Amino acid sequence: IVRNLQLFARQQRAGASQVSLNLLAEQTLTLKRGELTLDQIEAALDLDPDLPYSWADGGQLRQVLLNLITNAQHALRLR
């Protein structure tokens, strides 16, 4: 978990560059997977292997994905 947090923090450089949306999704879900497991939430990825790179700010996209996963986690806790 600590290694994933360090990797996540190091990769948050400001500015746009070519990013792999698949890799961002995998890394972000890996970061949250332990917490999701504690809440008995199973998450699965169905990624397009041919998805091209995107020109974006990877740090901002990671934050968006993290927020989406966290919001979904909170909503599922309320069920």
Describe the structure.
The chain has about 80 residues and is mainly α. Helices cover about 60% and strands about 10% of the residues. It has three helices and two strands. It has helices at about 1-10, 20-40, 60-75, and strands at about 15-20, 55. Strands 1-2 form a two-stranded antiparallel ribbon. It is globular.
Apparent shape: globular
Q: What letter string, H or E per element, gives the SSE order?
A: HEHEH
Instruction: State the helix count.
Output: 3
Number-wise, the strands total 2
List the defining traits of the structure above.
79 residues, mainly alpha, globular, two-stranded antiparallel ribbon
Summarize the structure.
By secondary structure, the chain is mostly helical.
